[in-house]
Amino acid sequence: MTVAIVGAAECDLGLTGLSVLGLQTQAVTRALADAGLSLRDVDGIATTGVARFSATSLAEHLGLQPSWTDSTFAGGSAFEMFVARAAQAIEAGQCHTVVISFASNQRSARSRSLGGAYEAHTPEAQLEQPYGPLYPASHYAMAAGQYLHKYAATREDLAEVAVAAREWALLNPAAYRHGAGPLTVDDVLSAPMISTPLTAADCCLVTDGGGAVVLTSLERARDLPRPPITVLGYGESTTNSSMSTVDDLTVTGAVASGAAAFGRAGLTPADVDVAQVYDSFTITVLLTLEALGFCGPGEAPGVVRDRVLPLNTSGGGLSYCHPGQLGILLLVEAVRQLRGECGARQVPGAEVALAHGTGGILSTHATVLLGVDR
């Protein structure tokens, strides 16, 4: 059985003043309306970031008693993981209509508290926490430093990622930085240093926001109002909790997750028309492009600089929205691109899209390939 995404939507973004459940309700009901469905059709929920038992809390809030749920907490990659789990559950007949959702009010709440405390026995507590690293900025900065040294890359190479993201955000009225004007390499380099070599402009936004997607069988999807977007392939990899256990910070689990997704889909990176790649920091994009096979080691700066691949067409976490976990919004933008709904930022003729989530400190990785219904 082929599974398809039939609805996709954002909740309010930016500085909303709303609660997490209020934003979640917006995301879910808007995505269902987009699909031509209602809450009574939903028998599966996948979400995280609501409470200790996130799916249970959201189901109760929406008045649902689903036959399938998932609330795996894996950071920004969780939502690409949820696509795989939901597709498998629908194929197995465990449920028929799944909503995957996320929302955060971290900017309104003035908090970035989305994770747990260090456990005393872990490598992080013993080998990293005593030095007071900024979590997660200092860890990504370490990866960036190794990348610059290993490949003789420059801070300008990192900055180009943020510049490219802003170019797309200027075409997206929903983007947080839509009205901020162009960003230059010099702007990125001269921004306040957060953790060497990453400045504030190398780091993602802190915003409220979120979104939702709705999945069902392709057979059923063809009777719904929106063009169905098929799930072609998926893969995931979990590699590390701490940085001190990683042999090479420039090689990530996206190598394995991407290979699995492309293998299931019977596709290669050359088949991808548009990519939505987690950009928590500028270095995340360079590492991920190389790991997914879009270019060789050390070659990602050229891919970004020459605008070889339509990448993070919403403006990404750097200029569009970053509510603490961006993965759901990567899926929303991928769906919209394949439907041809993106207006000034639309990639002409897009038929295959990739969404790749990264969680933690390059800890979890999940890749999803989506395609138009041929």
UniProtKB/TrEMBL annotation:
Family annotation (InterPro entries): Thiolase, Thiolase-like, Thiolase_C_2
Domain Thiolase C-terminal, first and last residues per copy: 235-371
Domain of life, source organism: Bacteria
Name of this protein: Acetyl-CoA acetyltransferase
